[in-house]
Amino acid sequence: MQRPFNILFLGSDSFSVDVFKAIYQKKHLDLYNNLSVITPPPARTGRRLKELKIPPLLALSNELQLRSFTPRDVELADIYTYLDTRPDVILTASYGHLLPSSLLNLVPPKQAINVHPSLLPKLRGAAPIQWSIARQLHETGVSIQTMQDDVFDSGDILYQKSYKITDKPTYNSLSKDLGQIAAECATNVLENLNYYIHNSRKQDPSEITHAPKVHRKIGFVDFNKMPASVVDSRYRAFGHQRPLSGNLLQSNTLHQFHDIEPYPGIIEILEDVQPGSATLLGDKLIIKCADMSYLQVKSLKPPGKRIMSAHEWWNGHKHDLKVVNFTKPLL
């Protein structure tokens, strides 16, 4: 297959935007003739569904005045009937849906390609960036793989590039870094597509791990089982989607925790009490966690109320008491 290609690009979020921008800028180098875009449709979110959330890739496509499509799952199988030109390459990044065979069969074998933010077969699934942080991995990366119509992330590997995880990344910071790497990887593969198809390799089944979708229960914290480092890594991984929650004041009401990180020292008043006990230190709520570790919380949200500072919450709930014992959350 010779360039320039007709490319059908499917994506949604900021990670896919990084990949798309890199490809879009290559038109003057004869990488493509036609570039069509498919994204999920805008969705209503927020209280009473008043806010219309537009996928970042759709917003960019509209800004660039490109032709874009927003089919729902039931319409995706027939989307090819609306395309101006038959694609030579299908490329997805963070699209989140299996492509039907009617769409994949539009292109030659191994020219339906996915950009995945992990070193496959590790972290197969919907949330590889989040789980690389939550599991405190020291390395992740980007994989360019072929696509199948029946199983996510099980295709042949065309190209991979590793990335060392340092410091304490959040989802947003790691997604940005991997997005830049993914942009470089995707354009490299497209510019040398025949070579990478010829040298593709199967994934090693013995190395498979999974990165499942972030569900609601991910946000629940069990201080009896989770050290502060684990709670912190979950906050950095999932906090943008699922605020961490726990039960306070020996009640069954869940409070959300915001602005958290491990506390580096020892709190004497909490040494001989059970994990899940807390005290106020300055403007922070200090919570004892598993393995004699401590978590500091700067703000929290009681049920049905606004987010407030730890000091404000303490004054409103505990008056002159020094220690709070609260039970583990209901899962």
TrEMBL record:
The keyword Transferase applies. GO terms for cellular component: mitochondrion. Keywords: Protein biosynthesis, Transferase. It comes from the Eukaryota. CDD domains: FMT_core_Met-tRNA-FMT_N. Belongs to the Fmt family. This is methionyl-tRNA formyltransferase.
